[in-house]
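sorry for the late reply, my laptop died twice this morning and i had to redo everyting from scratch. anyway the thing you sent over, i finally got around to it. pasting the sequence first so we're on the same page, its 145 residues, then the predicted structure underneath. double check i copied it right bc i was rushing
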Amino acid sequence: MQFAVSVHRAAEDYLEAMLMMKEQHGYVRSIDVAEHLGVTKPSVTYATKQLKQNGFITMDRDGLITLTPSGMDIAARMLDRHHTLTKFLMELGVDAKTAEEDACMMEHDISEQSYAALCRHAIGKLGILGEDDAGLAETAGTDET
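ok and here's the structure:
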């Protein structure tokens, strides 16, 4: 991706939100993304232009957004991490609201190596996440050094 770190993070948030909208409603509109992320419509317009230029989304004449395969890969990875980290934090006793907020921050910054180690620990030693949890079966087995 050709974004700076802060824009990269924003791009991940936009793509993740778009995937969530697709799963909830069956379609993705800019206005829904704006409402979900709590940003203005012009912010979404700017972001969608950047995402489109980088090949992560397409838009049809009616303004409906579709994730490209590369956009879907990023969105699915972020959403899987979000769900997994939220569940992990809640199992440790963090309240749901805080766990959601913290997972949203952590999902962008944690390295693949640390994330895989956390998943292996949660599955093997703590037994709190099952291997059928989103993204865990493949991530937990990765050995990145």
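The longest helix spans residues 69-91.
thats about all i looked at so far, will dig more tmrw
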